[in-house]
Amino acid sequence: MQVFFRNDAIEAGTDEAGRGCLAGPVTAAAVILPSDFENSLINDSKQLSEKKRFELQPIIEETVSTYAVCHIFPDEIDKINILNASIMAMHKSLDGLRISPEHIIVDGNKFKPYKDIEYHCVVKGDSKFVSIAAASILAKTYRDLYMDKIHEEFPMYNWKKNKGYPTREHREAIRKYGITKYHRKSFRLLPEQLTLDF
């Protein structure tokens, strides 16, 4: 895994988590690494166990130059659609950095210009660049903690386990109990859904 896309610029990596979920926010993180950064344990968050991600979270927070995390919630997702909400979350996490980046690398293939700063989209970037991988771990752990918290309010959906993803169990709970304020109303919440009565 490479540390930097460009060695001659202050570079931020950014990624999001929760794009395909039926409930909860889409969460993004942005990370700037110091020029001498070394950590062989960081990998794409999807390749790591939950336990390993939570072990790495404080290590990342203590060793990177600066990081920021941002949630965009379902009411906003429903207004502007999930792609725009994902990009907004990444932009807002970049806003939160204590150091201004001169170059941005983004996981995936969709992004919108941010403050005239040069950027590159990298497909599967979270398995190619350390800063994107670190951002993916922070986005995932912060989002998971949020889902654990709202699970206490609506335990019947078992968000502690499924984190809002469209598992069979989650869909069954929607069928049985209806939806909550944390569900994304613009998403197809049930396979046979044509319209939902709100």
Automatic annotation (TrEMBL):
This enzyme's EC code(s): 3.1.26.4
Domain RNase H type-2: 9-198
Protein's job: Endonuclease that specifically degrades the RNA of RNA-DNA hybrids.
Keyword set includes Ribonucleoprotein: no
Database matches in NCBIfam families: PRK00015.1-3 (NF000595)
Binding-site positions, a divalent metal cation: 15-16, 107
Pfam families associated with the record: RNase_HII
Domain of life: Bacteria
Gene field: rnhB
Membership in a protein family: Belongs to the RNase HII family.
Record protein name field: Ribonuclease HII
Reactions listed under catalytic activity: Endonucleolytic cleavage to 5'-phosphomonoester
Subcellular localization(s) per the UniProt record: Cytoplasm
CDD domains named among the record's database cross-references: RNase_HII_bacteria_HII_like
